[in-house]
Amino acid sequence: MKKILFSLLFVLISSYAVCQNPYDLWLQYDKIEDKTLLDSYKKQVSNVYLNLNSPTGDIIKEEIEKSFKGLLNIEPKFDTKTPNLIISTLDKLDPSLKKKLSKTSNINDEGYVIQHISEKGESKLILSAKTEKGLLYGVFNFIKQIQLHKDLSKLAIVDSPKIQKRVLNHWDNLDRSVERGYAGFSIWDWYLLPELIKQEYIDYARANASIGINGTVLTNVNSNALVLSPRYIQKLKALANVFRPYGIQVYLTARFSAPIETGDLETADPLNAEVKQWWKDKAQEIYAEIPDFGGFLVKANSEGQPGPNNYGRSHVDGANMLAEAVAPYDGIIMWRAFVYSEEKPEDRAKQAYSEFKPFDGKFKDNVLVQVKNGAIDFQPREPFHPLFGAMPDTPLMMEFQITQEYLGGMSHLVFLPKLFEEVLEEDTYTQGEGSTVGKIIDGQLSNKKLTGMAGVANIGTAKNWTGHQFGQANWYGFGRLAWNPETSAESIVKDWLKMTFSNKTDFVDPMSKLLLDSREAVVNYMTPLGLHHIMAAGHHQGPGPWVKDMPRPDWTSVYYHKADENGIGFDRTSSGSNALEQYAPEIQKKYSDPATTPDKYLLWFHHLPWNYKMKSGKTLWYEIAAHYQKGVEQVEDMQKTWQKMQQYVDPQVFKETNMLLDIQLKEAKQWRNACLLYFQQFSKMDLPDLIPEITKDLDYYKSLETPYAPGIRPSWN
Ligand code: BDP
After folding, report:
1. Which end of the chain is more exposed for a tag (fewer CB within 10 A), N or C?
2. Do 155 and 169 belong together in one domain?
3. pLDDT per residue as tens digits for the range 179-188
4. Is the pTM of this model over 0.90?
């Protein structure tokens, strides 16, 4: 009895002590409980040398004060003659200290060094960088070391970002709706800008700087030319002023027809002299207000957006025309390769490659071609986009989607860095073995040195920014991978969990497993074995393998799964669309035979009979069913793990996550049941015993409707 009471008391006390504020994201600065550790930290960092007289310097000082107050309960002294923490740019660092720093020459303008040294028997921590921006990144990493309870006397970190343009893409509209957004409205309150500067803008910049994100595209790729008008440029300027000291540049999406819509030209033909001049003038107008404006992101001739093709011109003509306009100011153009046309009979998976590959080497130096990670569209799993490695003379920018358009939107816990890592590690073989996608986009295997990674943001007005608490991990993880694409998902998950919730092993270990497994779970219960794009139409939430008769065939599910009496899957080998020919011979060889194709891509590349014998010895039908069932069980396991975590997390977060996991389980079962019943019409085979009895029929699942599911484009509702 006594024992029970004690453990009850323990749970009460410890849950009382836990009060993370979800708004603070991974920058939780709660006091370190371990007294020995706390005392040692206090001794090591109490006296700070910081001599920066600038807005970025002020931010650094504030962050040091805030974190030390929270984590260590001290107010650091900044006016001491005997500092033990020295924060200085390299040019102002005492030469004797500078000499003791290792490998400083290796860092780039955004990099930094954090090193513990001994000088005259005294222990000192030096944090240095070439620029103030580098220092800011270093400071955030230093604070992180304390959050992670690291031994400061062993610190010797030399780090620089491997990618130059680390950019969030907001699909935010000027009316504050967010295309594919599941976290409330857009945080940009355009109406009240430029006068009202919301605290969220500052906190947004701080959060991004803490993970090294250095750019933000504020507007939707399906763009509105109004944002280029003088009134909006003033609003943009106000945001740029907030973001600048955090090292963040603002970018806009450029609607290709803007010279007609907001100018008074009759054409937007990129080769027309007046059009060229219009964009040059527009660039000048923007740069006069925002000298560090980043440039434009453009979706052209895709899904109804205007573009150079409307005038018989190419993507190169369009991109280079804009590139010329921003070049005098060091601006860049991010030109999207997400193009496909319903008029072309070619497999949608092939179209971007067919269109863009011939343009290799033809874009101006300040153009990045932005390529989605896969050739269809941000699916739970896709093979890497064949353009990676195929355009060595063009800088290719990775586009990931952080918002979960096809991965359960607002309610599913899915740790996306696992997906991002998988793509970045894929071997393209385009320059021999080891030519990974990561090495292509970080410039190691590209002849061009401009590099970038974009993430479609999952941020909105939700009090915790991302709606689902665990969506924060995806924002965080994107930043870490954009900084260094070779970072492992495992290290990201551990850091995020510790910084956000707790350092306790009993929390971190099981929760790491939960998060790392969560991506495979969603693949299993939505689109196992290479299936893809079988979601409900329009909003993409929930199963819709029966979707057909849409305005265009490549928006339907039947186009992608091709289930019939003979089998299931999209034949992309030489007997089918031959999308496989767009990959290196090594991949072609391996994937042209179902026996050597990895199971995870099987139905992406092959149409196979229902009784096809899988590597496991079971039939394809059995394996499809088993994967759906596995996905459901994985969500059940997630729930079991989460149940044990109550003492480590904020009570509200605990409760809400519980409810969200209930929704996730309900929807995972829906996916399993709906897909199996639908495919069974063709397989005509019994469901294996491992599938629990399905009490509803297919019509029931087909009849489920979700009016006003969030995130859809209003015109598509
Ligand atoms: C698709 C989305 C659509 C986007 C489009 C894009 O369904 O809302 O506009 O991608 O990336 O995934 O342009």
Report:
1. N
2. no
3. 999 999 999 9
4. yes
